[in-house]
Amino acid sequence: MKILILNGPNLNLQGRRDTDVYGTKTFDELLEELRVAYPHDSLDYFQSNVEGELINALHRSVGVYEGVVLNAGGYTHTSVALRDAVSAVSTPVVEVHISSILAREEFRHVSLLAPVVVGSIMGFGLDSYRLGIEALKMGC
Q1: Which of 40, 59, 77, 97 is catalytic?
Q2: pTM here?
Q3: Residue 97 falls in the annotated catalytic set
Q4: For this structure, is 22 an active site residue?
């Protein structure tokens, strides 16, 4: 299976930012672990702090990837444009979050993406990405 892992703003700081919430493992370390765990699958990765670049990556996913694991970061709660992009593409998208957005500040409780993704996974730390991959492999 060919899967795109797509990370939004500030996730390039994984392992250094708010380590009490997000942990100390870097995303490069996680990505290597995922590639070892899924040797028969192709896992590509893209991260951007720029909303339009994330939208472009979703548009390019059509016909290339069988699924997208998306952590939109703060855009989860603010980006109608990113929501519209998820809704517009035929590629299945699973929303993931390292922390539980429902256990955080009130403004984080609403995901604009949740109504248009095939599923949402949150609160399992970096393991949320593995769970997102598993959900795609199960055909969600």
Answers
A1: 97
A2: 0.94
A3: yes
A4: yes
